[in-house]
Amino acid sequence: GSPLAIFKYVSSTPADTWTIFHNRKTINFIVQVNNDNNGGINNIRVFDENTVVIDFSKPDTGEATLVIFDL
């Protein structure tokens, strides 16, 4: 499928979990993470069709980009 949208999430406060609400009603996406302190990513999980959660080994700041597809 073709990309439907690009959704950018910014975490300016250090957190060990980033909860991203994209509200696109799909689980068809790719996640790119650019974290500032290089905390290891423990898990990227789909919570539901509107939410993805990224867990880090230590609190971190940075951004995540979701490329959402229309399949």
Core attributes:
71 residues, mainly beta, elongated
What would your notes on this structure say?
The structure is a single chain. This protein has no helices and four strands. The chain has 71 residues and is mainly beta.
Report the order of strands and helices.
EEEE
Distance between the termini: 5 Å
- The total of beta strands comes to 4
Count of helical regions: 0
Q: Structural class, please? A: mainly beta
- Main sheet: strands, sense, barrel: 4 strands, antiparallel
Integer average pLDDT = 92
Q: Tell the overall outline.
A: elongated
Low-confidence stretches: none
Q: State which percent range the strand residues make up.
A: over 45%
Helix content: under 10%
Rg calculated over all Cα atoms: 12 Å
Blueprint (SSEs and pairs):
Layout: E1 2-21, E2 29-35, E3 41-48, E4 51-70
Antiparallel strand pairs: 1-4, 2-4, 3-4
